[in-house]
Amino acid sequence: MDWGNVTAEDLIDALREVDWSSPPRPLSEFFSRFTVPRSSVKWESRFKCNLYYYRTNYFILIVLVVGLGFLRRPVSILAAILTALSFAFLNDSFAGTFSEKVIRTVRQFSPHLAAKMRPPLTPVIRGRPSTKRIVHICGRPRWVFVAIFSSVSFILWYVSCGLLTVIWTLAVALLAVLLHASFRTPNLKARLNTFREEFRAVWRNYSEL
């Protein structure tokens, strides 16, 4: 893939739809080789490639930095967790996995309640499933959970007075991600992983026809 032709909107859509349950890359690979990009075009391509390939590592890095900043503020830690979940719910794979695990747990205690938490069936138009698929979490539209978690986290941020802390911790974490994604040389495994994701996307679109 020529990452220089990938727009920011395409990258965001890919990060929203990709599977985030994959384990992080090993530290030996994460801190393997760093070089200065030769041009702004090379830097842009490298940054997008690394951001996609090391997405799980960057997410863990941000969580760790923010968590270290809130060691003395337990309420802020809860607010940070709810905020992270609010953003995580925007990812289709995470939302579906989270919903399935909750339903599976509830089924052990109340099968009737678990049946009500199942997502509605996808409408069929002219013999084909509708392409306008709405992601559900525990039987409710995704935006309901995003709104609830965001509202509660905002209240907790306000009560704990931790907004300044989250601003500087996020700034440090994002700066670390920016530096790593800019100077980490993409390896062959990253390029092969990109081709594999492209093949899966093409095959998924073909199977929906």
TrEMBL record:
<feature type="transmembrane region" description="Helical">
    <location>
        <begin position="142"/>
        <end position="159"/>
    </location>
</feature>
<keyword id="KW-0813">Transport</keyword>
<dbReference type="GO" id="GO:0016020">
    <property type="term" value="C:membrane"/>
</dbReference>
<protein>
    <recommendedName>
        <fullName>PRA1 family protein</fullName>
    </recommendedName>
</protein>
<feature type="transmembrane region" description="Helical">
    <location>
        <begin position="165"/>
        <end position="183"/>
    </location>
</feature>
<keyword id="KW-0472">Membrane</keyword>
<feature type="transmembrane region" description="Helical">
    <location>
        <begin position="52"/>
        <end position="71"/>
    </location>
</feature>
<comment type="similarity">
    <text>Belongs to the PRA1 family.</text>
</comment>
<keyword id="KW-0812">Transmembrane</keyword>
<dbReference type="GO" id="GO:0016192">
    <property type="term" value="P:vesicle-mediated transport"/>
</dbReference>
<comment type="function">
    <text>May be involved in both secretory and endocytic intracellular trafficking in the endosomal/prevacuolar compartments.</text>
</comment>
<dbReference type="InterPro" id="IPR004895">
    <property type="entry name" value="Prenylated_rab_accept_PRA1"/>
</dbReference>
<feature type="transmembrane region" description="Helical">
    <location>
        <begin position="77"/>
        <end position="98"/>
    </location>
</feature>
<keyword id="KW-1133">Transmembrane helix</keyword>
<dbReference type="GO" id="GO:0005783">
    <property type="term" value="C:endoplasmic reticulum"/>
</dbReference>
<dbReference type="Pfam" id="PF03208">
    <property type="entry name" value="PRA1"/>
</dbReference>
